[in-house]
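Newbie here. two chains, one complex. Structure please?
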Amino acid sequence: MNDDLKMQEPSESVDMTDSATTDMPGATSAPKMTARNVDVFYGEKQAIKNVSIDVSMDNVTAFIGPSGCGKSTFLRCMNRMNDTIPIARVTGEIRLEGDDIYAPHMDVVQLRARVGMVFQKPNPFPKSIYDNIAYGPRIHGLATSKDELDHIVESSLQRAGLWGEVKDRLQDSGTALSGGQQQRLCIARAIAVDPEVILMDEPCSALDPIATAKIEELIHELRGKYAIVIVTHNMQQAARVSQKTAFFHLGTLVEYGETTEIFTNPREEKTRDYITGRYG
Amino acid sequence: MNSLTEAKRQPTDWQGPAMQKRIARRYAAERRFKAMGFGAILLSAGFLAFLLVVMVGNGFRGFTQTELPLEIDFPAATGGASPSEFEGPNGNTNLQALGLRDIVDSSIEIQYGDDGTELFSPGGWTTVSAMILADPKIVEQKVTFDLPVASDIDVAYKDSGNDEAEAKVAEYSNQFSTGFNWNFLSNSDATDPMQVGIWGAFKGSLITMIVTLLLAFPVGVLTALYLEEYAPTNRLTDLIEVSINNLAAVPSIIFGLLGLAVFLNFFGMPRSGALVGGLTLALMTMPVIVISGRNAVKAVPPSIREAALGIGASPLQVVFHHVLPLALPGILTGTIIGMARALGETAPLLMIGMRAFIATPPSGITDPATVLPVQIFLWSDEVDRGFVEKTSAAIIVLLLFLLMMNALAIYLRNRFETRW
């Protein structure tokens, strides 16, 4: 149950008994998103228990843990995708640059534009590649002219490393691309609305190793431009792409710290057991 | 234990006669099943072919008419009417004043004897009238027209009629000719089977269908979208769902009574009009559209909704930009099934007075109108034998209308179909 953490320099010691409401000192930069004492209930069942975590711009943060541990649930709280599930209830607070995203005045549509999401299964719209990317900017009115929109599409595809592969067939259907290309298209689609945070929910679980490598490379390149949170089942992947890792187990946040620390010298027994493959 | 079971169990003889027999039985069962399925298809195809052959065979004759030549010496009969009288808007009135009908009748008497008028359809002179109005110059000439014969002669010539008619057919047998009955496509209901047409009922059906579609489609689709995308799951929505499913199964005559009670008695809308007919049929069609619409909306993968929500589309944008376009083919399929049912519906329309004798095609939604199936029902009830082939011909028109509608629906569905 105790999931209190501190975002600290690796050298500092961690006191796991601190109250969860403590501020997190020593963070290298102001965190983009902060979560405090978050509980999530699906009807009677509690899926997330008292989780507090900070996500910063400079780091890729990985959520790892066995199936059903709540990591995806928590991720979906960060842009209120859980709102679509009628029985889901969230308590505690999650802030984006200081604004409580569950506050009544928060516009959830704008929030989801600022906190983009990439899903487990590539889910491009059954429209052309161009329209897939242009859809977000269009509905948010981000482009005032056709040229500007073209520019957004091109730069988003370039950032997602897909431009070279699709520039001659922008009018082809997005669903005609290969699985890895579709996932990069989805990342480009998220980038196109100029988000601050990108949440990735097991983005590589439906992809082959080569496509996975490309996505990981892409995550490296996007780091620093966006705060990236990635949920993954694959511990090697977490080790490869992230700087911070959070280990979830049965709805609680067991351990959160530098990725290198978590993988080489975890403080918690449970983390060690999971990392070494004893369960999960 | 282990040794015991092993001792009991003989090695399986896969090649033995018992096994061969089992295989043979399995093949036989397979063949029997295939033969039965094939037989079922053959039977239904046979029924369909029989229906079509009988219908087209009978109905085809409904599109033709038997004609006799009639020579009219206009300068003599009219005493030198000038063509200019029959030009422009007053032409028809001037023709009436001239007594065209009597001219035609007297010409018949000259050519075919005193009881010659019995040979011709009483409405035959309208053919002459139409030709004069189309080309007034013919009143200066001696012209020969092919005029439709009387209904009993027509029946006797095409098939077999009463003795009197058969005798006349024998008498003039070398003068008869068969022409395409254009009147059937342009006229409305009439008492003389030679003069009836399908246009009034066709137009009535068309207007009624438009009213039905305009009402049932948007209401049905909006209901389906709301129930699937917005409505909370609670007892009320469950109740609504059950009610809609039940509504789809309610016998159509009851919708007719509902239309009678609500639209005619309560709202006081004009009786027999396409408006009331369309509204009543819309009530009947809507549940079908709602049910198929809900299924189509349900079939849109949730990942598409998530994708759109994930980049900040509002629920309304999700529905109208993504869910509706993907669900549209399914919705259209359901709509066309509902519309096809509405097109063929007779019972509810009888209740709201659309079974009236309508001799002029409706020109608006409040004009008295009738529809194709009701027209078929009315003609099938007539005593005059001439109506038999007209009934079949009307059935062909109805089926063609249905085919046209289905073809349009399939075209639209394929257009909106998204390739994944």
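Moderator note: The two ends of chain B are 58 Å apart (CA to CA). The CA atoms of residues 335 and 380 of chain B lie 30 Å apart. Thread marked as resolved.
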